[in-house]
Amino acid sequence: MEKVQTSATEQKLTRREMHTISVFVANKPGVLVRIALVFARRGFNVDSLVVSPALDGHYSRMTITALGDRETLIQIIKQVGKLVDVIRVTEHIEQAVVEKEFALIKVAADAAKRAEVMLLVDHFKAQTVDFTEDSLIIQVTGNTEKLDSFISLLEKYGIIEIVRTGKVLMARGKEKT
Amino acid sequence: MSGTEKTRTGAEALVQCLENHGVEYIFGLSGGAAIPIFDALVDSKIKLILVRHEQGATHMADGYARATGRPGVVLVTSGPGATNTVTGIMTAKMDSVPMIVLTGQTPTFVLGKDAFQEADILGITLPIVKHSYLVKQSNDIPRIVNEAFHITNTGRPGPVLIDLPKDITSGVCTAALDSPMDLPGYPEEAKLDQAGILKMAELLNQSQRPLLLIGHGAVIARAGKAVVKLAEKLNSPVTNTLLGKGAFPETHCLSVGMLGMHGTAYANKALTRCDLIFSIGSRWDDRINGDTKKFCVGAKRLHVDIDPAEIGKILSPDAYAIGDARKIIEELVKHVKPLDTKDWIKELNGYKKKYPLKYKKQGGLKAQHVIDEMYKVTKGKVIVTTDVGQHQMWAAQFFLIDEPDTWLTSGGAGTMGYGFPAAIGAQFGCPDKTVVAIVGDGGFQMTLSELATAVIHKLHLKVLIIDNKYLGMVRQWQELFFDNRLSGVDLKGNPDFVKLAEAYGAKAFRIKRSADVRKVLTKAMEYNDGPCVIHAEVIKEDNVFPMIPAGKSAYDMIIEKPKKRMEKPTGST
Ligand SMILES: Cc1ncc(C[n+]2csc(CCOP(=O)(O)OP(=O)(O)O)c2C)c(N)n1
Ligand SMILES: [Mg+2]
């Protein structure tokens, strides 16, 4: 398998847009910093980064979403691919992957507003995981757009805090992530 | 030899691994955190070359590596010892030079506590190494050393740093010296890209005015003979980058010499006229391609590089192959046919006649004259190193190179202070050759303390100081682009370099008059009892031409100083 995989390499867009990249790495010290430096040097803002052990503890998986133009991204992907501890870099186009994100949202919903909030919770298949006099914590899972719209609907009730995990994804079917 | 398998220390294991990898020399300077390693070297056949500044050690290792093709090894202590290697590591990275840098480190149990002479050298050097390690267990040493030697000199070579805490080198290492590598992400050599090669052959076969562009990659891959075959079969002219000197003989009738910012006029003219440009191990960098939109307009572009990230980084090619330049060109030769390039070569020969490199022997001593004579006196049969500046460009223009690995210069980094220590390293690596360092008065003063190193080891190298009493290259820019408002370029206070060399115990010569050049250089070359320094006091204000201002293309080349004031360059430095 090729170490570096970019989709539609030929297509050169210069618009700044969001990209998702999976990096499969040997679990060696410093590998995260090395990857981060490649992004930072070329002016890419890492929007979210999820690192977790892979099936075999010798390896880790990183899912990175970053904002920037595609031409630079292709160069970044190639440079990341050159790092000694990187085994595989893959850029994903939306259709070919399942992507999910998880969030905890603390909402300032007192008894008066609670019913309305619970309707939203229900609709988005979210769950409440903490209840106090004047706030509650909601957990929600889904793709990024779903989370974004859920959060924007909750805004008018007063959001106290949000913790989002950032996106994780997996290639569909036989493709490797 | 101290120690059996059981009682070997980490430092002893390290040194034995280095021996097993064929290391002859280590260039270094000691200190507390590195003492266990220096101690282990006492019992080793590896020769330790004590330098006077760690930067010197890195350039020596670099010069050794470029001249021999084998990685150079550096050993320094923690903290300031380690940080003094940064410039040399970056220089090696920019020019793809194999080098192993061993740094002592404070013990693991104080890491991160600002202990005496603790520096996070791994963090500091992350962007300028090919790879690096902080060793956390003595038993990891053999594996890591084995990996480092593999990584540094395969694929696209580059420096590897190993940070060695003192408790790790003093601790016991029971691991086998041939411990296997664990590099799941490091690529094996790729298969020949036959499709890419055929596509390139097809485009070459359609070309009427081809130009081969030879870069450092061709030197590193030892692709020279294959390139000669290709050029001769195609009847294609050849140009080379500053670092590509030597891969294709510059005295070959198909050579148009060096291209770029201070390349020959005919090479740069060829760029503007070719219908196909074929980079073999060059990365289209901004010294030859200041304006990517105006690079060889309309010409097909072919590219061979071992580094996949170079394909399309600066220019996107019409055809390319990723891999070892020698193997690719050897295969490619089979698929190309002789081209009718008579008119094309005639055109280029016309440019050679019209715009030769030249200088006047009257009107004071000229740097070009001294360098040109050095070329003639040595018949080019030496290893040349240079420093960075005007003298470097004149050396590139007048010192033609026919053999690979005999031209060592800092290209990508442009590191002043490189030339002299690199010559020392090259001389250690190639004792049967003579090494000539052509340096400027500015750059030489950055690393001249290594005169002691050269004298102690009686190296028969020559240091030719082109003394214009200026940071000449910067002065030239200020003259041409900043209304001659000179700022921070006057080297008033230069020492008497003859006396200085003599103070170190080196032989020294002086050249002040054009009439003496040949006589003195001949004498200096005959001297054979240790290093000798030749102090050439050249005219202070002279400029390197031809010139393509930074950010411009070959179409904008100037042959001599324009009457009008020039606009400030837009390109990078
Ligand atoms: C370490 C370092 N500092 C600064 C520069 C910028 N620089 C490039 S050429 C040059 C002048 C070099 O002067 P000298 O060594 O006397 O050589 P000359 O140009 O006079 O031949 C300078 C300062 C550099 N390349 N490297
Ligand atoms: Mg000077």
Write structural notes for this entry.
The complex is a heterodimer of chains A (177) and B (573). With 177 residues, chain A is of the alpha+beta class. Chain A contains 4 helices and 10 strands. Chain A is elongated. Chain A starts with a strand and ends in a 6-residue tail after the last strand. Chain B is of the alpha/beta class and 573 residues long. Chain B has 3 domains: 10-170, Rossmann fold (3-Layer(aba) Sandwich); 194-354, 3-Layer(aba) Sandwich (Rossmann fold); 367-545, Thiamin diphosphate (ThDP)-binding fold, Pyr/PP domains (Rossmann fold, 3-Layer(aba) Sandwich), CATH 3.40.50.970. Chain B is built from 22 helices and 18 strands. In chain B, the strands form 3 sheets. Chain B has a 6-stranded parallel β-sheet, sandwiched between helices. The interface between A and B is medium-sized, with 23 and 21 residues. Magnesium ion binds at residues 389, 440-442, 468, 470-472 of chain B. Thiamine diphosphate is lined by residues 387-391, 414-417, 440-443, 466, 468, 470-474 of chain B.
Write the layout of secondary structure elements.
The complex is a heterodimer of chains A (177) and B (573).
Chain A: E1 4-5, E2 16-26, H1 31-41, E3 45-53, E4 59-69, H2 70-82, E5 86-91, E6 97-107, H3 111-123, E7 127-131, E8 136-142, H4 144-154, E9 159-164, E10 168-171
Parallel strand pairs in A: 1-5
Antiparallel strand pairs in A: 2-4, 2-5, 3-4, 6-8, 6-9, 6-10, 7-8
Chain B: H1 10-20, E1 25-29, H2 35-41, E2 47-50, H3 54-68, E3 72-76, H4 80-83, H5 86-94, E4 99-105, H6 121-125, E5 131-134, H7 141-152, E6 159-165, H8 166-170, H9 194-206, E7 210-214, H10 216-220, H11 224-234, E8 238-240, E9 255-258, H12 265-273, E10 276-280, E11 300-305, E12 319-322, H13 325-333, H14 342-354, H15 367-378, E13 383-386, H16 390-398, E14 407-408, H17 419-429, E15 435-440, H18 441-447, H19 451-456, E16 462-467, H20 472-481, H21 497-504, E17 507-511, H22 517-526, E18 532-537
Helix pairs in contact in B: 1-2, 1-7, 3-5, 3-17, 9-13, 11-13, 12-14, 15-16, 15-22
The complex binds thiamine diphosphate (TPP) and magnesium ion.
